[in-house]
Amino acid sequence: MRWTALYVRSRQVPASLAAAVVSAAAVWALSGGGSADPRLPALVLVAGTAAGSIGLGGQDLALDRTAAIRWAPRRAAHTLLIGAVAAAVLLAVQATGEEAATAAFVVRDSAGLAGLAAAGAVLFGAQHAWTLPVAWPAFALFTPPGTGVPAQVATWMMQPPGTAAATWTAVVLAGGGMAAYTLAGPRR
Amino acid sequence: MNTRVLRTELKRSVAPWAGAVTLLGGLAFLYSLSGPWWKGPELWTAQWTSMAMWTRSMLVFLWPLAVGLGALQGLRDHRSKMPELLTSTPRPAWQRAATLSGSTALTLTSGFGLFVLVGAVQVSFSAEYQHLGWLPVSLVAGLALVAGAVLGMGVGRALPFALTPPALAVAALFVTAVLRMTLDTVPPSSSLPIPVALLSPAVEGVRQVLLTFSASVHVGQTLWLLGMAATGFALLAAATPKARTLALTPLLSGAAVALLVLPAAPRETYVVDEDAAARVCDGRVCVTKAHEGELAYLAGPGEKALRLLRESLGAGAPAAIRETTALNSPLEPAERSRTHVIVDFADEAVSGARGEELTRVLVGLGLAPTCSSRTWGSSGTDAEAAAQSVAAGWVFGDLRPIDGTMHSAAYQMKKARPAWKKLKALPRAEQHSRIKAMRAAALSCEAQPLEALTGGGSR
């Protein structure tokens, strides 16, 4: 328990959590309590995973690596938790109003975005990990709607649940990002 | 700032990344997707103003990234645990702030400048109408990127937490997403008050080639962005909490002044570019200056079509051809004229046809002008296309569909053939009066031209 508390503190989880809750509530309040637009829940999940991504590295990576503990399962759990918390915050906020996003949509997007954040941490370090899960949706938010597979892959987080190309993109991003982060850890 | 400091600064910051993201992000978006920027006369490499507008529309996602990357830059000193050391040096804080923001401003403007240059090179080869009226659009875009990044740096310095950059980037993304204007109305407008929507540095693409921003939009946005940059810079150089609070003044006053300067009505926001809409004529065929290049293929068939119309209609025939300069709203009928044949290069039946085919289209437009409102890049309704093909067929002596409309040849023929047979069965003088009735119906925009042609004439 003591280890968990220290880990949570060193990874700035309380601040991330607060940021995720505040941004979700702000988006929801400004959008007038939910609408059919898939971009709003996607934006909330982006905010949640971006806020969580700063904890993918500790204060001192060299010191972390000297610790005689198995990092791999902890890293995997951390990535999973980022996605789970982002999803939970969105579901909790939209429980107060009209339901805008289905559970399948939320699970797919949060898993994919968490994987993207993990990949960002491996490639650029935890401080810069948010660039990937923010840049891709930023690009996709303003893409004109298309029906081809490349368009579906590019805008996977905006597609209706059950779109095969979008689901597979999310699966690949979640699996790939998590595997890379679990094995390699954040870039120094 | 000497070049050695600048070089070191560029090596030790995310500034090169910011420039690269601006250049490659914009190019990737435009080239990897097929959107309205690849279609019709609003093509982003066809006209200078369109190019400036389309490249600036990329700010909708480039600007939030610039803000976020700027915040990362502002966090750098804190991350390397050196602010204490720096406060002990006698060098004024604003000089260090200038180095930091200068390097990012340099890479951002060069990145965006190169992006615009890619478009500019293509436009300079393809556009006949060369002008500099587009420059303010791109200059404000460059200023917006710099101001956003400097504000990000300032906030990053004032709130040195790892959470600041992602929070700022997502907030900026939300701002540009919410403040988007809609192109579905003419001129483009917004559900929010227009001055508030204009605070977003991004624009919404191009709906009509001749539309551009009015001067007050440029002035208001420049004031707002200068205030934003000033606040960012002041935050970057400020050392005390009091100075940080004072640093917010330029941002707030910039916003207040901008809201006063920015126009409140859509029609004052987007205006028809008078220079681009100036008339260029070859004989009786006139186009706008922006489409001067189209005159080469339009003039010959145009003169021929006018002669044919004169022969078949007599004194009431249109005397000239000109390009429409009206705002084409989806809610209002298209521009029509009794004395002119109105052409619109957004209509692919006109812009896609050449020679004899174009003469047919122009004769069709002269006898049965399109009155249905135009939505994005479309031609008239199927009934109008059929009426035009019958009208042109009557002059030329054989019925042929109009190519280039949204309606297939077979579909047009299905509608046109019964009317054509009815018309040809009538005596010549009666045919003549039916054609005139059809023209009157199309001009008034109240009756269906095909009905006027077949039965409505006996009303």
Automatic annotation (TrEMBL), chain A:
Specify whether Membrane is a keyword of the entry. Answer: yes
Which keywords does this chain's UniProt record carry?
A: Membrane, Transmembrane, Transmembrane helix
Q: Which residues cross the membrane?
A: 39-58, 79-97, 165-184
At the top level, the lineage of the source is Bacteria
* Protein name, UniProt field: Integral membrane protein
Originating organism: Streptomyces daqingensis
- Supply the source organism's classification: Bacteria, Bacillati, Actinomycetota, Actinomycetes, Kitasatosporales
TrEMBL record, chain B:
Query: Which residue ranges does UniProt annotate as crossing the membrane?
Result: 14-33, 53-72, 105-125, 131-151, 158-179, 222-239, 246-265
- Sorted UniProt keywords: Membrane, Transmembrane, Transmembrane helix
UniProt keyword Chloroplast present: no
Name the record gives this protein: ABC transporter permease
Q: Which organism is it from?
A: Streptomyces daqingensis
